[in-house]
Amino acid sequence: MKATGIVRRIDDLGRVVIPKEIRRTMRIREGDPLEIYTDNDGEVIFKKYSPIGELGSFAAQYAEVLQRASGHAVVVCDRDHVIAVAGLPKKELLERRVSPSLEELMETRHPYALTDGENSRLQPVEGVDRYASVAAPIVAAGDVCGSIMFLSGENDGAVGEAEVKLIAVAAGFLGKQMEE
């Protein structure tokens, strides 16, 4: 754990303000759920709660099946990090932060599909030179909680309607699993 040197007082309603600098670096937005942990030393720890992270092993199995059926590498993310990978070395992507462009795509709730001659390709993970060919946000109970995508290979061009529909179905299915 890293000390920040910032001290805040609890108000009369039991609230404490998380400083803007910490919210920005940790990508905590208004309305984001935080999980609260305590330990025997009296520490209170706030951790961003990822509802799709609860489905981590299920998402990994689903990604494996989807990868085998489609032949494309599959990546499942929550709003901040990669939580499941299939068809690529897991060390390369697992637990890495999603890119600002993928965050924006999730916020707008629009799917993405690579088209021929497209200049701006979607790089979904920060610091990794791989690009999405199809991506869709995962929506559960009206809230965006992540995304699922196919990554494009070296010689992949525009994607077909089948890939777009597969990812849309996968996003819908994972969203429904989160609601249960």
Automatic annotation (TrEMBL):
<dbReference type="InterPro" id="IPR029016">
    <property type="entry name" value="GAF-like_dom_sf"/>
</dbReference>
<protein>
    <submittedName>
        <fullName>Stage V sporulation protein T</fullName>
    </submittedName>
</protein>
<dbReference type="InterPro" id="IPR007159">
    <property type="entry name" value="SpoVT-AbrB_dom"/>
</dbReference>
<dbReference type="InterPro" id="IPR052731">
    <property type="entry name" value="B_subtilis_Trans_State_Reg"/>
</dbReference>
<feature type="domain" description="SpoVT-AbrB">
    <location>
        <begin position="5"/>
        <end position="51"/>
    </location>
</feature>
<dbReference type="InterPro" id="IPR037914">
    <property type="entry name" value="SpoVT-AbrB_sf"/>
</dbReference>
<keyword id="KW-0238">DNA-binding</keyword>
<dbReference type="Pfam" id="PF15714">
    <property type="entry name" value="SpoVT_C"/>
</dbReference>
<dbReference type="Pfam" id="PF04014">
    <property type="entry name" value="MazE_antitoxin"/>
</dbReference>
<dbReference type="InterPro" id="IPR014213">
    <property type="entry name" value="SpoVT"/>
</dbReference>
